[in-house]
């Protein structure tokens, strides 16, 4: 309930609206109930990340399931991340931008202050990328290597590039066409990096 309330507050008003007080008001819980689950706001934000990454990994897994080729599955995942949206509909409508930009800012901050916990929260999505790489290696379409390590490289490249773009768009507004081009360029870079 606490994580769901935090997610809603970030989606509605960005990180500025996410305080322990607003979460308690939204949930109707006492302060003690919050601190029994979380040491502070950073722990709550990490829990939001973990939920968002689990949701994204499940959504991407379902989205790419009909694709037989692991390279095509990897492409679909990278392009979806590149569009900076949780669903294909959000990618074209611009919805979800506030949440994406807020989580992008927090991602960069937590990567510096709490890298191990952030890496743990990102694990579901990186595992999905690693699965596609491993299948491509087995099929001979992706160069041999350590799938989990390559997945971290790919995720970090795509995520860092898109975080910068999403944060810039907070001031300038959505730039769908530019973001689509950037997502295509990121895929082409990744494709060449992992091709057999």
Q: Tell me the span between the first and last alpha carbons.
A: 46 Å
Could you state the order of secondary-structure elements as H and E? HHHHHHHHHH
Q: Share of helix among residues?
A: over 70%
Per DSSP, the total helix count is 10
Rg result? 17 Å
> How much strand content do the residues show?
under 5%
What general outline do the C-alpha atoms trace?
elongated
Low-confidence stretches: 86-95
Main pleated-sheet profile? none
DSSP summary, beta strand count: 0
What structural class is derived from the secondary structure elements? mainly alpha
What is the mean predicted local confidence, pLDDT?
85
Q: Explain this structure to me?
A:
- The chain is 81% helix and 0% strand.
- It has helices spanning 2-13, 20-27, 31-37, 41-64, 70-83, 88-93, 97-113, 115-139, 147-172, 176-194.
- Helix 5 (70-83) runs antiparallel to helix 8 and helix 7 crosses helix 8 (115-139).
- The longest helix is centred in the last third of the chain and has 26 residues, at 147-172.
- It is elongated.
- Residues 86-95 have low confidence and may be disordered.
Brief sketch in words of this structure:
The protein has 196 residues and is mainly α. Helix content is 81%, strand content 0%.
């Amino acid at each position: 309930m606490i994580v769901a309330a935090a997610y809603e507050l970030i989606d509605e008003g960005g990180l500025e609206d996410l305080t322990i007080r607003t979460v308690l008001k939204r949930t109707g819980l006492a302060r003690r109930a919050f601190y029994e689950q979380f040491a502070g706001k950073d722990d709550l934000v990490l829990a939001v990340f973990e939920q968002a990454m689990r949701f994204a990994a499940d959504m991407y897994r379902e989205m790419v399931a009909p694709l037989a080729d692991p390279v095509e599955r990897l492409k679909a995942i990278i392009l979806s991340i590149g569009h900076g949206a949780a669903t294909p509909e959000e990618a074209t409508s611009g919805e979800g931008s506030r949440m994406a930009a807020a989580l992008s800012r927090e991602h960069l901050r937590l990567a510096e202050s709490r890298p191990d916990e952030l890496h743990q929260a990102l694990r579901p999505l990186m595992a999905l990328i690693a699965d596609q790489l491993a299948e491509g290696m087995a099929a001979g379409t992706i160069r041999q290597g350590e799938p989990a390590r390559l997945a971290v490289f790919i995720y970090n490249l795509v995520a860092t590039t898109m975080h910068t773009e999403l944060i810039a768009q907070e001031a300038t507004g959505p730039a769908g066409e530019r973001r689509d081009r950037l997502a295509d360029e990121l895929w082409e870079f990744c494709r060449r990096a992992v091709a057999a």
